[in-house]
Structures are given as C-alpha cells and as structure tokens.
Write a structure and sequence with these properties.
single chain, 97 residues, mainly alpha, 7 helices, elongated
C-alpha cells in the first residue's frame, strides 16, 4: 500500500463518523486545497516531510513510519543528525544487526 493510499484509507475511516475528516474540511485543516489533498492521496505529487508530519498527526498515524515509507525522515531527526554527525555510525551499525 502506498503512502497516499494509507492516508486516504485512514482519512475515510475517520470521515465515516467525524465530518472534520471529509476531504474539504481536512484539506482546510492542513492549509492545502482539496485538489492537492487528492493528488497526495493518489500519489500524483511529491509531499514535503512537514506536510506528511501534519497529516500523520491529524490522522493518528505514526509520522516516522509514514515518512520512511515515502523515503523521508522527520525534519527534527534530520536536524539532530546534522548537529551530531558522529551518531550516523551508530545508526548504521544498528541497522546492520
């Protein structure tokens, strides 16, 4: 399942009982157009890490998993790794185990 499909599936699950998750209302909460939301859900446009974090937060999804599935990392994690580049080696070792 793609990131966009995951977003759409969860949004529709919530919209069934909460109107604030219907496409127009949800897109307004995100500060994007409903057309942009549909394009994100259909995988037609790239989406920033910041927007994915907001979407995940509103939908109750794990932001780090959603970002990773989209080939991204959270801006806060990126900043931490840039501030302490020596940690990259530890992470690489952990991934290899």
């Amino acid at each position: 399942m793609t990131v966009g499909q995951t977003i759409r599936r969860r949004r529709l699950e919530l919209a069934a009982t909460m109107p604030e998750f219907e496409a127009l209302a949800f897109s307004r909460r995100l500060g994007i157009t409903v057309g942009h939301l549909y394009h994100v859900e259909e995988g037609r446009v790239g989406v920033s890490a910041a927007l994915l974090e907001r979407i995940a937060s509103l939908l109750g999804l794990d932001a780090h998993r959603l970002l990773a599935a989209n080939g991204q990392i959270a801006p806060s994690l990126e900043a931490a790794l840039i501030a302490r580049p020596e940690r990259w080696a530890e992470i690489e070792r952990g991934l290899g185990e």
